[in-house]
Amino acid sequence: MTIIGTGVDIVETARIASSLERHGDRFLDRVFLEGERAYCGKMASPSQCYAARFAAKEAVSKAFGTGIGAMLGWLDIEVRRKASGEPFVVLHGEGAKTATRLGITEIRLSLSHSEHYAVAHALAMGFNGGMRSCALPLL
C-alpha cells in the first residue's frame, strides 16, 4: 500500500459558530450528514465538534487532490467515531467513486481541537503507485 495523498486543514471555531448562528440548519444541511449532526449536537460545545469535522472534510479533499467540488462534495465525506474514539471516514456518492478512480482504499484521519481552533490531517492510501505530487527520495 502506498500514500496517494495527504491533506491538513485548520479551522477557527468562531467561524463555524458564526455560520451556525447566521445560517443554522441551512449550513448544517449543506455540510454535515445526519449522523454527524446527531453526534455534534449533543456535545457541550457543538461548534468545536463541527469545526473538527469541517476541517476533516477539507483535509480529505486535499488528500484526494480534488478540493470540495463536483468530484467530492461536503456530503460525500462522513466523519464517524469507533468505540475507541478514533475518528474514521465513510465516503458516499461521488466521493466513493472518486476514491475508486484514484485507487484510494483507505483514509487515515486525525482530529484535534482547542477552544479556538480545530485541525485535521488525512492520509489517503491505496495501490495506484504512489503520491501524485513530486516528492524527494528518502536517503
UniProtKB/TrEMBL annotation:
Cofactor section: Mg(2+)
Location in or out of the cell: Cytoplasm
Main location: cytoplasm
GO biological process: fatty acid biosynthetic process
Pfam families linked: ACPS
Domain 4'-phosphopantetheinyl transferase: 6-115
InterPro entries according to UniProt: 4-PPantetheinyl_Trfase_dom, 4-PPantetheinyl_Trfase_dom_sf, ACPS, Ppantetheine-prot_Trfase_dom
Binding residues for Mg(2+): 9, 58
GO MF entry, a single one: magnesium ion binding
UniProt keyword Calcium, yes or no: no
EC number(s) recorded for this UniProt protein: 2.7.8.7
Reactions performed catalytically: apo-[ACP] + CoA = holo-[ACP] + adenosine 3',5'-bisphosphate + H(+)
Keywords from the named record: Cytoplasm, Fatty acid biosynthesis, Fatty acid metabolism, Lipid biosynthesis, Lipid metabolism, Magnesium, Metal-binding, Transferase
A GO cellular component entry from the record: cytoplasm
Root EC class: transferase
NCBIfam families: acpS, pantethn_trn
HAMAP family: AcpS
Reported function: Transfers the 4'-phosphopantetheine moiety from coenzyme A to a Ser of acyl-carrier-protein.
Recorded family membership: Belongs to the P-Pant transferase superfamily. AcpS family.
The protein, known as: Holo-[acyl-carrier-protein] synthase
Source organism of this protein record: Chthoniobacter flavus Ellin428
